[in-house]
Amino acid sequence: MSSKLEAIGIAKRYGDAVALEPTDLAVQAGEFLTLLGPSGSGKTTLLQMISGLVAPSAGRIEIDGRDVTHVEPGKRGIGMVFQSYALFPHMSVWDNVAYGLRMRRKSREEVRRAVDDALAMVRMTEYAKRFPKELSGGQQQRIALARCFAYRPSVILLDEPLGALDKKLREHMQSEIRRLHKELGATFVYVTHDQDEALTLSDRICLMNQARIEQVGTPADLYDRPATRFAAGFIGHSNLLEGALDDTRGARGEAILLAAGGRIPLPMNAMNASVASGAAGTRHTLLVRPEAPRLVEPERGFVDGTIADIVFFGSDTRVQLAMNDGSELTVRCERSLSPRIGEKVGLVWDPYRTTLLQA
């Protein structure tokens, strides 16, 4: 399948400062791809080069196979939604949405039909005669989306559009953006530093770190099978257990990792080539998500420790354990369990629900 949007060797430098290392990225038609990463990771720089707002130092951008690297932003056939809504305060909602269409010299009837359709899509028809100052933050964001959607661009870039909203409104707008993506069928490229937002919205996530791509995959790929230690630590809550291979094998012939003061079995499908042939003492990092372990008697656990803290989260309870080697480990428990601070417990889990990373 040919790509809708492709960055080929795209890079950006400001003097000696590297904003983006040479990068390749392909986005399929109709896909919702999120650029995720901490501040300074290069995600916004990449988005701005795709939009044409920033000129690359190297490489090229293609849309539908056409090189648009040096095409001005307004002629790339893309739409953009910013964190700052950038609405004209002196214009009504209707006129704000119509502005881009009028600049494209659409007929009066085309403008009327497109604006009415866009406002209906974001469920803001009844607010058409109001001015931006009369709207809430969430309503203003909907108008910014409607203005972008009105001329039906095939590629839509969104730069942290929900960053200024409170948690409840953000969650509501996430659902709205996902719905609108499905209705439009356009290709969305979305920038955020919020891991939960990326997991909720995306078909695929492009995780960025230190001006380069760390990993690209589905939300499930990045959560269950992170490729690097950074990916493991950035997506979701992580227990990273540092340890070394033992010189003995488990009862079923599996390798054993000595970590957190215990003996942890490693399934064959979790071992990369270096683990399968690794010598005793080779160091590795094991990722164990908080939902994987269950509490058992200390002598039955792969590892054991003492409950140091218990935090109630509504749907579940988070238990913080102090392990025998001084490390800490978090476990997500059902509310039906009643652990107590100071209690000694063991932890077991399905070894196939863990991921082994090379230290």
What share of the residues lie within helices?
Answer: 10-25%
Number of domains: 2
> Would you identify the regions where 5 or more consecutive residues have pLDDT less than 50?
none
Secondary-structure-based class equals alpha+beta
Order of helices and strands: EEEHEEEHHHEHEHEEHHEEEHEEEEEEE
The CATH class of the largest domain is identified as: Alpha Beta
- The CATH homologous superfamily of the largest domain corresponds to P-loop containing nucleotide triphosphate hydrolases
How many beta-strand runs? Answer: 20
As a whole number of angstroms, the C-alpha radius of gyration is 25 Å
Strand content: 25-35%
Major sheet summary line: 6 strands, mixed
The third-level CATH topology of the largest domain is Rossmann fold
Which whole number gives the mean pLDDT? 89
Shape: elongated
CATH architecture of the largest domain: 3-Layer(aba) Sandwich
State the distance separating the first and last CA atoms: 36 Å
Task: Explain this structure.
- This protein is an alpha+beta fold.
- The model has no long low-confidence stretch (mean pLDDT 89).
- The strands form 4 sheets. A 6-stranded mixed β-sheet has the order 6-7-8-3-9-10, with helices on both faces. The protein has a 5-stranded antiparallel β-sheet with strand order 13-12-11-14-20. It has a 5-stranded antiparallel β-sheet with strand order 15-19-16-17-18, with no helix packed on it.
- It folds into 2 domains: 5-234, P-loop containing nucleotide triphosphate hydrolases (Rossmann fold), CATH 3.40.50.300; 239-358, Beta Barrel (OB fold (Dihydrolipoamide Acetyltransferase, E2P)), CATH 2.40.50.
- The chain contains 9 helices and 20 strands.
- A hairpin with a 2-residue loop joins strand 1 (5-14) and strand 2 (17-27).
- Helix 2 (93-103) packs across helix 3 (108-121), helix 2 (93-103) packs parallel to helix 4 (137-149) and helix 3 (108-121) packs across helix 4 (137-149).
- The protein is elongated, with a radius of gyration of 25 Å.
